[in-house]
Amino acid sequence: MSIAWHEIRDHLMFSSSTLGFQHTFDELRRSSEPLAHFADPAALLDTLQVGSRGPDEKNRILVALVRAAQSGDEAADCALTLMLLALWPGLDAVRRRSTWRRIGTGDEVASEILARASEAIRCLDLQRVNWIASTILRNIERDLIRTRQREDRHQSLRSEADPDEIPTDDQASANASSALLHRDLVRIVGKDSDLVIRVAVDGFSQAEVASELGLSEAATRKRYQRATRRLRDVLREFR
Questions:
Q1: What would the mean pLDDT of 161-183 be, rounded to a whole number?
Q2: From what superkingdom does this record's organism come (predicted)?
Q3: For residue 3, how many other CB atoms are within 10 A of its CB?
């Protein structure tokens, strides 16, 4: 029987609220300075998801959780659960975009994202990564897309030249259209083209993109507003 996406989160939340989990969390925060002042998992998650702390401080907390998740001791599962919950808004955004792209059924996408997220957390090379959340989320989404593209290519090679299997002109030109869009945006808004694409096309929130680019939310908002104003001005010239 399949488990709905929201039920996975409910299960993780329930696990994090048990007395045994709290005891393990107490051990975890005693051994990690960035986690020391959080009284319980709820306070930690609130800080990471809606708190007023800056990106650098939140990233230090995530680094501590990843280290604990990779430790292999009794606190590893506790840290992994907290990482999954901390990343949940971003994972949910990846799930929605992956479903929209028809990468798989809802259950397939949910299962794949959860498995890839757990593996990414346990295998992340902290010596090579600067921004924990954005790196994990970006890699998961990239790998989902690449896997689907590889499967499509294999299916195309196996299939006969059935008219129903032949890609439409729209499908064949999708990648070219994306490249043209990026080229045009670079010409119009310069270095903010990737920011515009991530928000307006890929569906990321400005907060997610801010974390990915290592910017404050305020700076990201101003740059996005400036870029969209420039786009509107250019469009008016064609009227």
A1: 56
A2: Bacteria
A3: 13
